[in-house]
Specification:
The protein is an all-alpha fold. It has five helices and no strands. Helix 2 packs across helix 4.
Length: 86
């Protein structure tokens, strides 16, 4: 194994630390009473959380598009919404 490759290797302790930090960011896991959650469960819940966030963003984008379509393009409300998006 080259020295370059060995320097980029992450230790088991570093992985455990990263999983622990990730566990604190995911509401589904953070709110559980048990502190002991497997790394695979943390990663699985992280993927689910990210998928849910994507769905939420898609839904909000759709609602915003509908709002902009239904609003007169010259109105003050439309101008405010557009300025917030810029």
């Amino acid at each position: 194994m080259s020295s370059r490759r060995s320097r980029s290797r992450i230790s088991d302790d570093q992985i455990a630390d990263l999983v622990s930090k990730l566990q604190q960011l995911i509401p589904e896991i953070r709110n559980r009473r048990s502190d002991k959650v497997s790394a695979s469960k943390v990663l699985q819940e992280t993927c689910n959380y990210i998928r849910n966030l994507h769905r939420e963003v898609d839904g909000l984008s759709e609602r915003l598009s509908q709002l902009l379509e239904s609003t007169d393009s010259d109105s003050a409300q439309a101008a405010i919404i557009r300025s917030l998006l810029m």
